[in-house]
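It is worth pausing here to work through a concrete case rather than discussing structure prediction in the abstract. The textbook approach is simple: state the sequence, then state the predicted structure, then interpret. We follow exactly that order.
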Amino acid sequence: MPYHTSTNYRPTLTFRNKHWSTIYPSVFRKIPEVVYERERIELPDGDFIDVDWSRKNGRHLVIVLHGLEGSADRPYVRGIIREMNRAGWDGAGLNFRGCSGTPNRLARSYHSGETGDIGYLVEKIMAEADYETINLVGFSLGGNVTMKYLGELGKQLPAPIKRAVGISVPVDLYHSCLEIQRWHNRIYLNSFLKNLKIKARLKEEVLRPHVDLEKVYGAKDFFQFDGAATAPLHGFSSASDYYKKSSSLNYLPEITIPVLLINALNDTFLSETSYPTELARQSKNIHLMTPKFGGHVGFVTRHPENIYWTEQMVHDFFIPNK
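Step two, the predicted structure:
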């Protein structure tokens, strides 16, 4: 059965602490070997996304989707692309709308359930290149987008997409939002909200006709922010409606290709419902790994070449015979 109860991830004592494991790689890790070439892709609705490419002239491609308020420049994205570059794969880091360093044009932005942009990117790549394989890796919010996209398409998934990996994925958005509101997570929540509000101020004139900016700026948690901004901007009736319709947990049973979901048991962002063990036991496609340690998008590994455990897991899952 695809559910894996044990793993070979054994961090040092220091990185068994969930907060240090979460914070350390974001602050201290560097991946200078990956050199990007940026492509701006115009979208049908008049907006754009920026994609950062690291090409090796390969026949296989990995597309990596970042987490909330991240970008393709984050070490965890670069780490995956570097690992797959070494195997001869091309890499593409998708920057969600407004996450590439330039505000997007429209009032709407990205969110945990927005799959249209990754779908458009895949179709564009297929039309312009002849990749044998286009696999996906998503982190946190990007992992939820990845799994929802795969489940939505089901049997209609483009043939080059053979496998996918989600790391630190809040597949149940509602309960994960409750989790991040706990006192020990306030430092993360406040940081996310600060960045989201800064972006709102940069687009204030565009946003003003569509949202109550006073409620946006006054939001104290994700329920308030998503109710004031995310929901009205993206066609949801409320924050709860957004969480219900966007949670990838609802779409996992419809996935038709092998996927690997890696959620650490000490992930400080995840609720118990983000570990779908029974679904994995009954599924032939959902491979679930729940290491005891790792934190959120952490999995720090002392490796002479700065390779993290999750990057090796992605490599082995995508190239299982090597």
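Step three, interpretation. Residues 173-246 form one domain. The CA atoms of residues 167 and 184 lie 22 Å apart.
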